[in-house]
Amino acid sequence: MLEFIGIHKAFGSKTVADNINLSVTNGTLLAILGASGCGKSTLLNIAAGLVEPDSGEVYLHGILLNPLPPEKRRIALMFQDFALLPHLNAWQNVAFPLKMQGVSGGEARKRASAMLAEVGLAGEQERRTQALSGGEQQRVALARALVAEPRLLLLDEAFSSLDTGLRQSLRRQTLAHIRHLDIPAILVTHDPEEAFQLADRIALMDNGRILQHGRPADLLARPAGRQAARLLGCLNVRDDHYVPQNALLPGSGEDCAIDEVIRLADSCRIRLTHSQHGKLLLNLDWPHAMRLGDALHSGGTLKLAVDDAQIVRFP
């Protein structure tokens, strides 16, 4: 298990970690979801030993990490800029952490080659990193992070430069490694879709603070506030409330959910109006004709109402 306890860090007047308390159990992945500059990458660097916290403690499997140098922590960190060694080729970059652990040259090359094959680079072992595309460099960096069977895996925007098919494949492989090694893992991302696809738990971070953390479904059902809802990618968020996409809309003859409406057109957004007789009146910008229950609605503004009990009110 990884534990952050009371972590505080500031660079000059900017606080990037404000009393952070988080834990990640073995075999699970925590996604830290937030905008650029909110402090999420600093947490990874603190765990890896590259940045020293101003206060607070980091424990891994019950061992206090603060006094240990990075090379003694057995932590793999995949940097956002890959941090590949330009004087080494692909397999040598992947084998580097194995050699640091004392693995023999032949065995290190064998394991590095096998890991490159897993990430789809079986034929690129001898190529210099400068000759690789950005996506290929990202896969080399991911292979290097996984090959040494670390005690903790830290991923900083690990899948952002990959095309859709490869991204899905590498996500599955990475999760399989986390489960197989039974280690904690943290993924830093600004992409809600990625967080929801991969994470067992999500921590929402803004300006150095954790706004909310928990299981993805629980966060989506009841975000703690406007900023939390927007980080989750929720539609139909206002300052004081949020209309979940599974709220039931009274149709003609039967109810249907808002997400049934929205999935038919990405451009469908709800403009909230006002409460009346225990219902929240909604206007939807709707460019197409659609069937809601038994009634056919033409394009334009679709007017509906949702029971107040289904609205998430922010404190």
Low-confidence stretches: 251-255, 262-267, 288-299
Total number of helices: 9
- Under CATH at level 1, the class of the largest domain stands as Alpha Beta
Q: What is the element string, with H for helices and E for strands? A: EEEHEEEHHHEHEHEEHHEEEHEEEEEE
CATH topology of the largest domain: Rossmann fold
Structure characterization notes:
37% of the residues are buried. The protein has helices at residues 40-48, 90-100, 105-118, 134-147, 164-181, 192-198, 216-221, 226-231, 258-262, and strands at 2-11, 14-24, 29-33, 55-60, 63-64, 75-78, 152-156, 185-189, 201-206, 209-214, 241-242, 248-250, 255-257, 269-276, 279-286, 290-292, 295-297, 300-307, 312-313. It has 315 residues and is of the alpha+beta class.
Question: In a nutshell, what does this entry contain?
Answer:
This protein is of the alpha+beta class.
List the helices and strands and how they pair.
Layout: E1 2-11, E2 14-24, E3 29-33, H1 40-48, E4 55-60, E5 63-64, E6 75-78, H2 90-100, H3 105-118, H4 134-147, E7 152-156, H5 164-181, E8 185-189, H6 192-198, E9 201-206, E10 209-214, H7 216-221, H8 226-231, E11 241-242, E12 248-250, E13 255-257, H9 258-262, E14 269-276, E15 279-286, E16 290-292, E17 295-297, E18 300-307, E19 312-313
Parallel strand pairs: 3-8, 3-9, 6-7, 7-8
Antiparallel strand pairs: 1-2, 1-4, 4-5, 9-10, 11-19, 12-13, 14-15, 15-18, 16-17
